[in-house]
Amino acid sequence: MRKKIAFVSLLVVFSFVLFSWGAFAQEKILRIESDEWILNKFPVREAAERFQKDHPEIKVTVSPKEYKEFVRSYLLMWQSDETTVDLGIGGMPEQLAPLVGADLLVDLVDVVTGIEGIMPAFLDTAVFKKGEERYYPVMPFMGELMTLNINKSFYADAGLMDAEGQPIEAENWEQFESQLQKLKEIAPVAALSVDWGWNFIFYSYAGGIQAMRGSIYSPTNPQWLDFESEAALKWLELNQKWVREGLAASGTITDVNYGRNNFNAGIIPAIYTAHSRFIEAGEYLGEENTSMVSLPGARENGSIVYTHAVYIPKVSPAQELAKQFIEEQMFSEWFQQWGFNHYGKLPVVADFYNEGLTWYQKEAELILETVNNSVALPKYKGNEMLLDLLQEQIHPLLLDRQTPEETLSNIQNEIEARDIDMTRLD
Amino acid sequence: MISNKSFNLKQSGIAYLFLAPAFLFIVVFIAYPLVYSFYLTFTEYDFVYDSSPRWAGVSQYVSIWQDKNFISSLQNTIVFAVLYYSIVMVFSLIIAFIIAELSKGQTFYQLAVYLPIIVPLSLAGVIFAWILDPTFGVLNHMLRTLGFESLATKNWLSDYSTALPSIVMITLWKYVGFNVVIFLAGIQGVGRDILDAAKVDGASFFQEKILVVLPNIKSYLAMASLYSIVQAIKVFEVPYVTTGGGPGTATLTLYLYSWRTAFGYYKMGKAATIAYITAVLIVCFSVLSNKFLEEKEK
Question: Domain total for chain A?
């Protein structure tokens, strides 16, 4: 009897262990965390379902990031060798730099090289350097281009459309200013809003300089962003003058959505910011009423691009699954074009600019042409400090409290005084 | 038989046992972070690139005075504190006196002024950012309706001259009610006999309030004063939500700068130093305020 009991007990124990082990062995889990806005503007959840359908043994969970300041929480979590996430979605590469600096992310070079046709300008946003070696701890999955988003109704009323009904692109800055003056006469607030808020100040500052001289780097120190050239001075002078004369609004200084809201409301005719704003505004103003034009010089010299990226923590036990998800879903034609067709977010693979794009085809051509000439911003160790310094100096300039010369010289001096680390990470 | 000594020991042992969880909580969540962050003020520690803090002596306390942003944030915090403290104390005292004089609806008005306290400060910031919006804001719309065209185009939060005062106003809206309730409790506690005696002696309305009521609510004044000073110096949420410290550094405050240094730049040693200087400032102002009230009492 005893033997029987012992046998049955052992059988139960072994079955339980085997079953548990089998269950764990069978189910692979991929945990995705994404910025909330990305979950709204990209079909991440649908991609997860598709991935599960293709691989029934894998369970994919998708959740929004718990904290707005996610970089900080990821830093703490991953430095403690723990993770609740295997694949992070969202965050600009320069924003993710602390995670790269702390060596917490997996090198995605095999994924990057495995996908053909990623546009170099977008890829440049994600490259980092370890010694002399270039690597990709983050990978861009969508792109944006700095450009002039316009309301065509205003342009038509101001007589700024050509015979084919397309907005006339200013060939030089004098012509651009005269266009602003014409627009100002019919616009309720101002003709233009440049995104000078904390989230775009880097791009807006560099975008104007790139359009003017085809480079964003200092003529004397090629590692540094340009704070000394004639173009830098002129870009600041123009912006100060436009605000002083009421041609441009300064609301973005403290309200980062000022330009976007006023553009969507049909109050401001033009905003200099990410291209997807004119596509977003199409929903409110009508697709036929919004478009984009290049700043003078930007067609030849290019503009600034930025991206949002995906990344995999080194502490994740599901690194290969995460890579597989990126390759199979996020870089599929369907996923990449969905973002453009719904919210104007750019595919990062050149081949996907095809008939699969269902709207704004004309603009898509111009975007593709400009992106090919455009550049990514450099990534510095002291990026955040530099960002704050730009705000502290450019905001008073726009409000006429200091000259463009003083602004540039203050920026250069303060970089030294504050010991801002200008070591390049890329 | 149990001796008194062993009974006391047993009793105190049980007491310590009951105190242990609270003690543990204080040590882990208050004492340790306080001591550790104080230690950090004597170090240089880049949270991203350094594996551990590096001892730097008092260099943070010396070099901080060369930092223009720190000086700006210190100035802004002091200006904010002086403006906020003066207005909140006087204004809430006046409201409390008015409510105390009402024969009907005291509870309603008390509730009405207290209500904003339940709105989170960050949310209040968002609401006021909309109210103060130059194009769509209610304030400019009202000014336009009332014929103040030149003011109606003002960008209250982006203008150097109005950004900080706007933040003071938003914070006032939130906290005036708290002080009013404290003062009301004090005013209503002043004995009827004292007030009647003052009247018999021929005290006017204002004399009664200033010379009789105020000295009798000194402890309430001290409490509200301390609370207001702490609120004023640790101002953070409203500038964070509405202006981000701008335009330029016009609304950068000490707490905001400390937060930015810690979680934007990851310079933990410097951030801790700013936080400790802020704490010292709070202590100084509180001592000053108490001294002032004590002097008055003498």
Answer: 2
**Domain for residue A9, yes or no?**
no
Say which of A98, A102, A250 has its CB closest to residue B155.
Answer: A250
Q: Which residues of B touch A255 (CB under 8 A)?
A: 129, 133, 157-158
A263-295, pLDDT tens digit by residue?
Answer: 999 999 999 999 999 999 998 999 999 999 999
DSSP state of B117: G
| Span B188-206, pLDDT tens digits | 999 888 888 988 888 888 8
Judging contacts by C-beta atoms under 8 Å, the chain A residues touching residue B47 are 75
Helix (H) or strand (E) holding A5: helix A2-26
Q: Do B247 and A418 touch (CB under 8 A)?
A: no
Token readout for B259 is: 């937060």
Residue of B nearest to A380 (CA): B265
Pairwise CB contact (< 8 Å): A101 & B248: no
Question: Same domain for A60 and A101?
Answer: yes
| Sequence-separated (6 or more) residues with CB below 8 Å from residue A341 | A356, A357, A358, A359
Q: Which residues of A touch B68 (CB under 8 A)?
A: 414, 417
Closest CA in chain A for residue B66: A417
Q: How far away is chain A from the Cα of B217, in angstroms, using its nearest Cα?
A: 42
Q: Cβ contact (<8 Å) for A102 and B49?
A: yes
Q: Return the SS3 of B45.
A: coil
pLDDT of residue A335: 96
Decide if A15 is inside a domain: no
Nearest-CB residue to A384 (from B67, B129, B264): B264
- CA-wise closest residue to B238 among B155, B147, B171: B171
Closest residue in B to A189 (Cα–Cα): B135
Q: Is residue A394 part of a domain?
A: yes
Are A235 and A331 in a shared domain?
A: no
- Cβ pair A72:B263 closer than 8 A: yes
Contacts with B243 from chain A: Cβ below 8 Å: 254
**Tens digits of residue pLDDT in B83-128:** 999 999 999 999 999 999 898 888 899 899 999 999 988 899 999 9
Nearest to B247 among A189, A254, A382 (CB): A254
- Split at pLDDT 50, 70, 90, the class of A337 is very high
Contact assessment for residue B167 and residue B161, using Cβ atoms and an 8 Å cutoff: no
A and B: number of Cβ contacts within 8 A: 76
CB B261 within 8 A of CB B270: yes
Q: Which residues contact A87 (CB under 8 A, 6 or more apart)?
A: A30, A31, A32, A33, A310, A311, A312, A316, A318, A322, A325, A326
Which residue from A192, A137, A103 is spatially nearest to A323, judged by alpha carbons? A137
Q: Residue A14 domain-assigned?
A: no
Listed by start position, the domains of chain B span: 54-297
Query: Containing domain of residue A322, as a range?
Result: 25-142+307-359
The model's pLDDT over B45-71, given as tens digits with 9 standing for 90+, comes to 998 888 899 999 999 999 999 999 999
Contact B48 A401 (CB under 8 A): no
Instruction: Give the tokens for residue B227.
Output: 């609370």
Is the Cα torsion angle A201, A207, A209, A215 positive or negative in sign? positive
The CATH number covering residue A393 comes to 3.40.190.10
CB contacts, 8 Å: A72 with chain B: 263
Least CB-CB distance to B248: which of A255, A381, A395? A395
The pLDDT, as a whole number, for residue A10 is 52
CATH topology assigned to domain B54-297: MetI-like fold (1.10.3720)
Task: Calculate how close chain B gets to A166, using CA atoms only, in Å.
Answer: 29
**Predicted TM-score (pTM) of this structure:** 0.85
ipTM of the complex: 0.80
Q: Are residues A43 and A136 in the same domain?
A: yes
